[in-house]
Design brief:
- This protein is of the alpha/beta class and 287 residues long.
- Glutamic acid binds next to loops.
């Protein structure tokens, strides 16, 4: 038997899908098919303020229209918050995360003052216990951040050796074995103040839980692989292979994005375009 191949499309239901999503989903499904593997759909709806059930329904409708077939049941992250809490508890136990009471503005001010300037990274440390206790007693909200210092100390020599395999391409043409440099992202938030979990933790957990062997997604998430690789190493989870793909751009040369009001798949469908024609236009191998 050949090695298992499991990939996924993991949209956040915060808007209607556009061509960029179609490309990503079709590319992942085509890769699974070519490898005789499995294609999963995962609904990443931990951002409760922005996620909507109607967008989730639209995702299922759009992907079915595209002719994609995914395994059921579909994992919906908001149904599994206890899983993420358990990971966070394990990291807390090991002193790898710390409470951060700073507001977004305070974080930005602090970054702005850093000598290296432009890079948006934040490095912090736990507050002294008495100060922390006072804030907790006052009911101040806090996020949990991953401590790069603690992670480095825990991994020891393995820190320097941390890497991931890129079979696609990062935005700078990165390909092959890439040294993981989580310090580029700073002490990332693993649990947000409002929902108790954040993107990197949920994604790394779910990719491991679902046995994802290949992460196929847009190159805008290339930097995320550096952080996710660290979380995998800390948790003893396997390292998937990454295939980041180029981002589609519109006629104006700008990438498709929800915020740019890119034409949605729903609108494309309403114009009478067939899924086959769209597949052709986007250059994805036929189903
Ligand atoms: N949910 C993320 C997004 O919609 C994608 C996560 C991933 O593919 O790792 O941008």
């Amino acid at each position: 038997m050949s090695a298992p191949f499991v990939t996924r499309f993991a949209p956040s239901p915060t808007g209607l899908l556009h061509r960029g999503h179609a490309f990503s989903a079709m590319a992942a499904e085509a890769a699974a098919r070519a490898a005789g593997g499995r294609f999963l759909l995962r609904i990443e709806d931990i951002d409760t303020a922005r996620s909507r059930p109607e967008f989730e329904a639209a995702i299922l409708e759009d992907l079915a229209w595209l002719g994609l077939d995914w395994e059921r049941p579909v994992r919906r992250q908001s149904d599994h918050l206890a899983d993420y809490q358990a990971v966070l508890a394990a990291l807390r136990e090991r002193g790898l995360v710390y409470r951060c009471f700073r507001t977004r503005k305070e974080v930005l001010d602090e970054i702005g003052r850093a000598p290296h300037g432009a890079v948006e990274t934040f490095r912090g440390a736990p507050l002294p216990p008495d100060e922390e206790a006072a804030r907790l007693a006052a009911g101040r909200p806090f996020a949990w951040r991953l401590s790069l210092d603690a992670a480095r100390a825990e991994l020891g020599p393995a820190w320097e050796a941390l890497s991931f395999t890129e079979e696609g391409e990062g935005p700078g043409g990165e390909h092959g074995v890439i040294p993981a440099r989580p310090e580029r992202a700073g002490d990332v938030v693993l649990a947000r103040k409002d929902v108790g979990v954040a993107y990197h933790l949920a994604v790394a957990h779910d990719d491991a839980l679902q046995g994802v062997t290949h992460v196929i997604r847009g190159e805008d998430l290339f930097e995320a692989a550096h952080v996710q690789r660290l979380i995998q190493a800390l948790m003893g989870w396997p390292a998937p292979t990454y295939r980041h793909h180029r981002l589609l751009t519109g006629p104006d040369g700008k990438r498709f994005a929800k915020r740019d009001k890119a034409e949605t798949l729903r609108d494309i469908r309403a114009r009478g375009v067939t899924a086959a024609a769209l597949r052709d236009e986007l250059g994805v191998p036929a189903a």
